[in-house]
Structures are given as structure tokens and as C-alpha cells.
Amino acid sequence: MTTPPLLGAEGTPPLLSAEGLHVTFPGRHGAARARAVDGVDLDIRPGEIVALVGESGCGKTTLARSLLGLVPATGGRVTFDGKPLDYSSRALKAYRKRVQLVLQDPSGSLNPRHTVYDAVAEGLRIHGYGGDERAAVAEALSRAGLRPPERFFLRYPHELSGGQRQRVVIAGALVLEPELIVADEPVASLDASVRGEILALLLRLRTELGLSALVVTHDLGLAWNIADRVAVMYLGRIVETGEVEQVLTAPRHPYTQALLSVLPEAPGDPVVLTGEPPDPSRIPSGCRFHARCQILASGEAERAGVADACRSKDLEVLGGGGGTQVACHWARAQVTT
Fold first, then answer.
1. How many CB atoms lie within 10 A of CB 242?
2. Quick one: which of 41, 1, 30 has its CA closest to 237?
3. Reduced to 3 states, what is the DSSP secondary structure of residue 91?
4. Which of 27, 33, 123, 291 sits at a 20 to 30 Å CA gap from 13?
5. 129 φ, ψ to 5°?
6. 320: CB partners within 8 A, 6+ apart
7. 2 pLDDT band (50/70/90 cuts)?
8. How many domains, the chain?
9. How far is CA 106 from the centre of its chain?
10. Angle, alpha carbons 325-228-190 (nearest 5°)
11. Distance from the first to the final alpha carbon of the chain
């Protein structure tokens, strides 16, 4: 594996990009189609870690799977390295060598009948690797923090701790020398004592390899610790995005404010959102968050003169690049007053 000399920076062309992305699923028994991803622009630059944050059911996992080519887009497009994603079998196989998925549950990701060696070597065999397989597996395990790697070759998943299993999953991704990984809740199933180790590992891999990452999570605390940028998703659309320090120290969208308020170190009382996110087959008019919005419920939006817009005027899709952006009538009114 070679180490790129520089990490990505502002102005660098994106490595992976979603442009006006839509993913819909058929409704049951003739019901309206569910708009799981309902217009998303999102860029990930070389060497950059982007956190995609939101509640369960907001569409973030569907978005991540669409970026991987596992779920075809029904509108818009995905581009990688400047080229639109090709959904032919041959092209997707080549693409998935460069973009790897790391799943939430390492126990479910690993075949209990396969040794650690076979689990890590599987990708090499699928892609017809012609080099020294044993050396490649050993290097990937070592990079993932399992040293000496030979000690783990003949072990089975049940013989490992949860953190060790997650490192094996990461090694299985690294062995193909990807340019980007998509990590879906990578530490959600781990003990608190192990989470920091895995996050530190991902940061080290970014530094050593120039690896880009999209980290899908419901945890804004995790985003704070690992990400360069954060994109907050609600009901199929990104509602706030920007540099992680800016968004998480001065959140402008009421939804972001509510998510941050429940963190243990957050000042003030937690914001308790009423109800569940709406059905994605029946997205409300206006701001899609307005039915649960604490700003609208408290009368602040009315005093700012935007309550009617919140209920009736849709907001545009936010741009996918850098810079702080928010899709909220009230937040924008605060800037202009």
C-alpha cells in the first residue's frame, strides 16, 4: 500500500459525489412510492472524512448503499473520480474494489465457519489478486491493529472480542487498497471502551493512507471526534451541512439543535421531539421538519414572520461541497434580521 503525499483540501475535486440523488421504493398494495432519498447533493474529497448523521429511518443508510451502487438511483447520479457510476456487473466489481463497505455488526459480517485469514483474503480471491496473498492479508491485519497478524490467521470469529472482529472487517476492506470506505455505524455495537480505539484507527488510516471515508451514524458525538464535515439528514434530504466544528458548535437547524441537545455534555435542557419522522411516502408540504419543529411550536417562527413558509414553502436541495448551509426558513431569517 502506498501513502499519498497530501490529504484532500477545500477546492479539491470530489472523489465521490451525489448530484440530485433520488431513491424511491414501490409502496405496498398500490400505495404511494416511498421517497427514501429525496434530492441529495453530497461530495467527499480525497482524504476527507464526512459524517452523515440522522435518526433511524431518515434515509442515511439508503443513501450510503446508493453511493456504493448497491441500490440504484431513480433520479440524479453518482460520480466517482469524475465519472458517472456504471451499473454493469463488470464496472461495479471494479468500483467496489476502490470503494469498500464496513458494516455495523462485525458478527453478522463475518462467516463463523471462516478463519480470519479466509475472511480477509475473500476480497482478494473475488478480484483475482495475482500477488502474494499471505503478505497482503498480513499487512491488512497489521494496519487494522491486529499484531502480530500471523497470530490471528487461524482464529475464528467466536474466538475474538467485538473490537477484534471489527478490526478484521476493516482489514477485509483495507486488503483491496480502496480509496474510500463507507462505514455504516462502525462502532454502534461495541463497548464504549473499544469505540475510541476504532475511531482512532480510522483517523490513523486516513493519515497514513490518505483514505477517504463516509461515516454513517446517529451519534453527533462520534461525528465531532472523527469527521471533517458533517451532513445532517432528515426525511430523505440533507438539512444542514458544513465543517464539523461550525455545525456542531453553532447549529442553525432546529433538528440539528435537537440532536445535539441530548448529548451528555450539552448545555441546557434536552429538546424532546414529538412523534416519529413522517412516512417517506407522505412527505409533508413546506419544510419537511415543520410538524415536529420546536421553533414553530414555540411561536418563534411566527414572531420571525416565517411560520407560513415553514408549513407551505419547500426548501431547495443544499449543495454538496464545503461551506455551512442550512435548509430552514427560520434560520435564514435570523441571518437577514
1. 21
2. 41
3. helix
4. 123
5. -60, 130
6. 14, 17, 18, 19, 40, 41, 42, 43
7. very low
8. 2
9. 17
10. 115
11. 53
Residues 219 and 279 in one domain: no
**Beta-carbon contacts of residue 220 (< 8 Å; ≥ 6 apart):** 53, 230, 248, 259, 260, 263
| CA dihedral angle for residue 268, residue 269, residue 272, residue 273, rounded to 10 degrees | -20
Mean of the per-residue pLDDT values of the chain: 92
Note the pLDDT tens digit of each residue in 75-92.
999 999 999 999 999 999
Boundaries of domain holding 30: 16-233
Q: Establish how many alpha carbons lie within 13 A of residue 310's alpha carbon, considering only the half-sphere containing its beta carbon.
A: 26
Angle, alpha carbons 196-201-207 (nearest 5°): 130
Q: Which one of 233, 260, 275 terminates a domain?
A: 233
pTM for this model (two decimals): 0.93
Of 166, 201, 233, the residue that ends a domain is: 233
Q: Write out the three cell numbers for 280.
A: 417517506
Same domain, 51 and 88: yes
Separation CA 169–CA 155 (nearest Å): 14
How far apart, in whole angstroms, are the C-alpha atoms of residue 78 and residue 80? 7
CATH code of 136's domain: 3.40.50.300
Backbone angles phi, psi at 137, to 5 degrees: -65, -45
How far is Cα 33 from Cα 27, in angstroms, rounded to an integer?
5
Q: How far apart are CA 248 and CA 15, in angstroms?
A: 25
Q: Note whether residue 72 is domain-resident.
A: yes
Cβ neighbours around 310 below 10 Å, total: 23
Q: Residue 328 has what DSSP assignment?
A: -
Burial class of residue 203, CB neighbours in 10 A (0-12, 13-18, 19+): middle
Query: 129 and 168: one domain?
Result: yes
Residue 283 shares a structural domain with residue 215: no
Q: Report the amino acid identity of residue 265.
A: E
Same domain? For 78 and 129 the reply is yes
Quote the pLDDT of residue 207: 95
Query: What is the spatial distance between Cα 120 and Cα 109, in angstroms, rounded to a whole number?
Result: 11
Q: What is d(CA 218, CA 209) in angstroms, rounded to the nearest whole number?
A: 26
Query: In this structure, which amino acid lies at residue 226?
Result: I
The 3-state DSSP class for residue 109 equals helix
